[in-house]
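Researcher: We are triaging several targets before committing to wet-lab work. For this one, the compound of interest is magnesium ion. I'm pasting the protein sequence and the ligand SMILES. What I need is the predicted three-dimensional arrangement of the protein with the ligand bound, expressed as structure tokens, so it can go straight into our comparison scripts without reformatting.
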Amino acid sequence: MSEQAKYLRKVVEDYGERCLRGTHKSPAGPQRIIAVTSGKGGVGKSNLVINMSIALASGGMRVLVIDADLGLANIDLLLGIHTRHTLEHVATGKASLEEIQVTGPGGIRIIPGGSGAQCLLRASEEERNALMESLETLEDQADFIIIDTGAGLSPNVLAFLAFVEEIIVVTTPEPTAVADAYATVKTIAYENPGASIMLVVNMAKDRKNAKEIADNISIVAKRFLAVDTSFLGFVPRDPMVVKAVASQQPFLLSYPSSNASQAIIRLTEKLTGVSRVASDDMRGLAGLFARIFHRVERGHIEDGLQQGRNPIG
Ligand SMILES: Nc1ncnc2c1ncn2[C@@H]1O[C@H](COP(=O)(O)OP(=O)(O)OP(=O)(O)O)[C@@H](O)[C@H]1O
Ligand SMILES: [Mg+2]
């Protein structure tokens, strides 16, 4: 076994042990659905989603990742996974959710999005019902459902942000990314006032730098929006991330001793340390899609699609 593999095993064992000692949520705890979003694109959402999910899975959690990014296929590209079917095929009744899910590294399961999330919003009632049924089966098999929403405030991204209980907003230290992260927090405050908003600063210089940036967002959000945001953690700028992306491998597995991997473990520990009990009406993946479809029926999403409306003006 290589030194790297030994190291990862140790990290995973230590983490698993802490889970068993009850420092962290047990796999049998309540299911959590977490959307990962950002204002600006390219800030590191998909890398965060994949590596955090692998860290969760290594701690004994069953993790389902939904790639709801409507941009270029993201997660499958990052992982070099070739998928024939995506959510688009589910939306058009050509495949079931079970058929399209793929097993990724570290045992995480991935639902590839393609341009499917958009199609889902336009699906017929019959197609939606079929989808809801398969969602119910799927949601029983996951402790964590992590949704990569893609960047920006398009109606599709908003559809998810409006109805999940926990949202991670990713930014980098770059001023434009911070301004866009704040705009995202503002939209969440308007669309989903009860959501728990967690900030992650990626590509930061160090923890101090990240904390300062997160604190600035938190202070402004508190003062002007009366909204609480918490600092979940940071990932340093690390050349190993770029190397791992180039080889289509998650950095947590390729470079487990890298600074970025250590940061992911810390951040994941913090996430599992926060216990969250979903309110009854917010529970489950099928429930989430039911709320999204209801919103479509009320015309919110179609209106937004047609007019490019920004709900907060
Ligand atoms: N911590 C980091 N250190 C160095 N480079 C990073 C780090 N995180 C991300 N990157 C670089 O940024 C690129 C974009 O990352 P990623 O694809 O995860 O962003 P994204 O927010 O999902 O983008 P999009 O908005 O296009 O979906 C990566 O390919 C990598 O080169
Ligand atoms: Mg992405």
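Researcher: Any quick observations?
Model: The beta strands are 32-38, 63-67, 102-103, 109-111, 144-151, 166-171, 196-204, 229-236.
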